[in-house]
Amino acid sequence: AEEALAAGEVPVGCVFVRDGSIIARARNRTNELRNATRHAELEAIDHILADEKLTPKTVQYPLSTTTLYVTVEPCIMCASALRQLGIKEVFYGCGNDRFGGCGSVLNVHQLSHLAHDGYNATGGYCREDAIMILRRFYITENTNGMQKFSLLVLVAELTLLLIFTMLSITFFRSNLDMNAPITSTALCQYTAPLPKSKANRTLKTDILPP
């Protein structure tokens, strides 16, 4: 989980244990691989399935003697994959209130009438540590978000300033003698047009109703 945090990923890490030994470990890599399915559990499962010593071809449920320890409750997708592979048991740190598949949202691990047997899932294992590292991640994300927002505001302000400057230049050029040198005196040569005298004024009647 710490490695995932350092890599800018949602800090979730896991280990698969068989006969008292760790046979696989992994972390979230969704951002790194630009693949939303690359959760820690599936990363580790791919490693196990790729090793013939860990997964004999004759075994129907390659995880039937394996226990998973993961910092956050497996999501619905991962909980389903674990069931299809016959995981023995799952221990997780904190619950997953948005996508949890082991009780928080759905009980994928214990749903009846499925083709594969269910499994036990127990939460609260190092729960405080799991929550704290998630908080560290989201605080960092919020800070980065504010920095990006501030940058966007700055770009918008500079854009408006540039537009105002260009409009001002266009206005002055249309009212100055372009053959004369541009000086502070020349910039002050523009005068507003004088109103017409009363003698030269005519009353417009075409705009009046008949």
UniProtKB/TrEMBL annotation:
Single GO molecular function: zinc ion binding
Domain CMP/dCMP-type deaminase per the UniProt entry, residue ranges: 1-104
UniProt cross-references to Pfam families, sorted A to Z: dCMP_cyt_deam_1 (PF00383)
PANTHER family per UniProt: CYTOSINE DEAMINASE FAMILY MEMBER, TRNA-SPECIFIC ADENOSINE DEAMINASE 2
Keyword list, A-Z: Hydrolase, Membrane, Metal-binding, Transmembrane, Transmembrane helix, Zinc
One example of a Gene Ontology biological process annotation: tRNA wobble adenosine to inosine editing
Name of the protein in question: CMP/dCMP-type deaminase domain-containing protein
InterPro entries xrefs: APOBEC/CMP_deaminase_Zn-bd (IPR016192), CMP_dCMP_dom (IPR002125), Cytidine_deaminase-like (IPR016193)
Keyword field contains Transmembrane helix: yes
Source species: Panaeolus cyanescens
GO cellular component, one term: cytoplasm
